[in-house]
Structure to design on (349 residues):
């Protein structure tokens, strides 16, 4: 398989041509842009990613900022990060330019900047690829299964029948999803046990897939409070935390204690009418409440007796992160970074 970094470098060099004084080269690390007249060189640390769209790019920026926070003095690497992508959409490209992060895709689109260097190419269409077999693990049913595996890593060794019951999918679906995860390097079998591998990358792909392919299917619509009094006391509105929990912005506030939510996201297994009665809410396409299907069974997931009282008012932090990271609100993006750093990379999902 051709190295995507080498392909992108070759494409950009062909665009620059032989007449320019700039040269770009490197098939491994680093990738170096040089001025052949002044002999000035700008080294970059390549970070290989897949296709970057507006939903996925914020997560990559969060990861870069996380690396930088672990190396505040820049002693580990003096090279600027350079995202190497199959294709960067116009929205993602604009976002990266605003953040000052360099990128290069296989079509030659780029914004590479460091010191006096500024190299910008846009408008080139994605290259045509041969047909590939679809990865079924990241369809809507597969995303449901991957979610519970990330939330409770020990579930990877559960019987397929039990896994199917956690998220209401067929046992056959579990079989092909697990096979895909093995082929992709996310599940390894060792001594008759399965082990989850490359968890950070899997969370990344899950969050993107959830936003693009599953979340819209779970939506029941937007709603508004019928009383302003109800709107100010949202934290105390839920009576059955086994069936209804906060996600998104209210979940971030419950998790971190420092986020004032504007959009109240709820995941529920109850009928919409039951939730609306409890909240004293009514349908409104511009309302401040959004209701989505809770696609997992929290009783089974948390291995609790449903007659006991649940004290967990929010959904798992991975789902809160996915709700936030696709938001255009800068506050939500900052909260997503905090959750990634404190609860996903260093803590539990």
């Amino acid at each position: 398989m051709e190295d995507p970094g080498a392909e992108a470098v070759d494409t950009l060099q062909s665009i620059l041509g032989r007449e320019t004084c700039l040269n770009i080269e490197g098939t491994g690390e680093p990738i170096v842009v040089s001025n052949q007249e002044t002999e000035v060189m700008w080294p970059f640390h390549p970070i290989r990613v897949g296709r970057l769209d507006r939903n996925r790019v914020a997560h990559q920026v969060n990861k870069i900022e996380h690396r930088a926070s672990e190396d505040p003095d820049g002693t580990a690497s003096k090279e600027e990060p350079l995202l190497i992508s199959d294709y960067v959409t116009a929205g993602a490209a604009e976002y990266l330019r605003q953040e000052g992060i360099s990128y290069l895709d296989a079509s030659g689109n780029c914004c590479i900047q460091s010191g006096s260097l500024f190299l910008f190419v846009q408008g080139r269409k994605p290259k045509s690829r041969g047909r590939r077999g679809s990865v079924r693990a990241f369809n809507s049913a597969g995303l449901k299964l991957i979610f519970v595996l990330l939330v409770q890593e020990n579930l990877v060794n559960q019987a397929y029948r039990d896994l199917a019951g956690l998220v209401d999918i067929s046992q056959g679906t579990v079989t092909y999803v697990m096979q895909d995860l093995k082929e992709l390097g996310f599940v390894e079998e060792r001594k008759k046990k399965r082990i989850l591998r490359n968890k950070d990358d899997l969370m990344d792909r899950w969050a993107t897939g959830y936003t693009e392919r599953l979340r819209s299917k779970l939506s029941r619509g937007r709603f508004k409070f019928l009383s302003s009094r109800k709107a100010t006391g949202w934290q105390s509105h839920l009576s059955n935390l086994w069936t209804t929990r906060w996600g998104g912005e209210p979940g971030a506030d419950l998790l971190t204690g420092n986020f004032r939510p504007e959009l109240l996201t709820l995941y529920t297994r109850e009928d919409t009418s039951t939730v609306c009665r409890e909240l004293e809410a009514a349908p409104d396409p511009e309302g401040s409440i959004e209701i989505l299907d809770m696609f997992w069974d929290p009783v089974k997931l948390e291995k609790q007796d449903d007659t006991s009282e649940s004290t967990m008012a929010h959904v798992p932090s991975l789902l809160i992160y996915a709700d936030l990271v696709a938001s255009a609100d800068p506050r939500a993006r900052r909260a997503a970074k905090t959750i990634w750093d404190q609860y996903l990379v260093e803590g539990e999902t």
Remarks:
- The longest strand covers residues 40-48.
- DSSP finds 13 helices and 14 strands in the chain.
